[in-house]
Amino acid sequence: MSITSTRTLRVGVVGIGQRSYIANHVAAAGLDADGVDARIVAAADVTASGRERAADAWPDATVVDGHRALIGTDGAPNTVDAAIVTTPDWTHAEIAIDLLRAGIAVYLEKPLAITVEDADAVLNTAAETGTPLYVGHNFRHSAVVRLMRDVIARGEIGAVKAVWVRHFVGNGGDYYFKDWHADRSRVNSLLLQKASHDLDVVHALAGAYTSRVVGMGSLSVYGDVTDRRDRSDELMTDWFSFDNWPPAEQTGLNPVVDVEDVSMVMMTLENGVQASYEQCHFTPDYWRNYTVIGTHGRLENIGDTGGGVVKVWNHRRNWDVAGDVEYPIDGVEDGHDDADLLTMTEFLRSVAFGEPTTLSPVAARAAVAAGALATRSLRNGSVPIDVPPLPEATLRHFATTPDRDDVPERTTR
């Protein structure tokens, strides 16, 4: 992959919906200080409303009706050097594969795909073509995760043996049950769209990927809400309000609602660490709580953005809300703009200068595998399911990229 001789890195955006705003970080990534002009030159969306949003957001960009219009044909060069793909989840694999085969570097919004099979197809294509692939697991760059990883790396809680995650998705009714996210044919499960962040972080904190998974869950509240309508021409910001409460009185849900609104996952990781993840979409509060237990103590976050705290207990005692050590969480106090900027900067620098990234696509696949197979388990009597290995050639390809501190030493069993 090489950029044009004028040192301009031409970037396209595919899918102009709620998450496409991350492309605004291209200009803020600071590559110009190193002599590279990274700019949005094209935007693609299959809907008229999406193309209108693209024209408003990037008036100097060429707006086209699909990702294939970015790919050169009949000997013509590609329109872009790199593409930021923020389309709905079920389209990720097809679009990424087309772009990778055309030699266009891909920033693919998480999740990598909605099935293990599609995730493997994307990684195999990246390995076969050698085209750069980056998956936007921005939560890796959040201040709370970086802080927890630092505490573990310093040995403050000893060797990690267990990780527990409770995810209170207080905005779940607005975020996930009023559009395509509520339809399992489009999203498979919210253990992918929503939980892939946390499953990836579990792997990062524990230093290994999931090898066996069990899932449980149900559609406990939103399936009983009968007020439904098509919102395909709207974005989440058009209907979101904290006044949309209580959950059973939500209105305007997606016509199809068949994904679980409460779910639980139990995991055995390749290094023997035991982990669990719980997700609920009808809580009043919205945050995630990690507990990491090691051989010499444990850590826990209270709050997951700026203003929160990570507490460490490493002396024996009875119940005590105060930790032996408490570390303030820096970063933004709401949302994840800081993590988005770091993620986009990392992608662009990897394309422009070949710099290493802190997330391997193999790790993104591991998050998909844990979520997709947990979903298969919970819908089939909570049977345990083992995670299949990637092909050796694909593992070798990604193992030859620069060292990353998040990739476990052992990726096959």
TrEMBL record:
PANTHER family: CONSERVED EXPRESSED OXIDOREDUCTASE (EUROFUNG) (PTHR43708), OXIDOREDUCTASE (PTHR43708:SF8). The keyword Iron does not apply. The keyword NAD applies. Keywords: NAD. Residues 9-137 form the Gfo/Idh/MocA-like oxidoreductase N-terminal domain. It comes from the Bacteria. This is Gfo/Idh/MocA family oxidoreductase. Residues 146-300 form the GFO/IDH/MocA-like oxidoreductase domain. It comes from Curtobacterium herbarum.
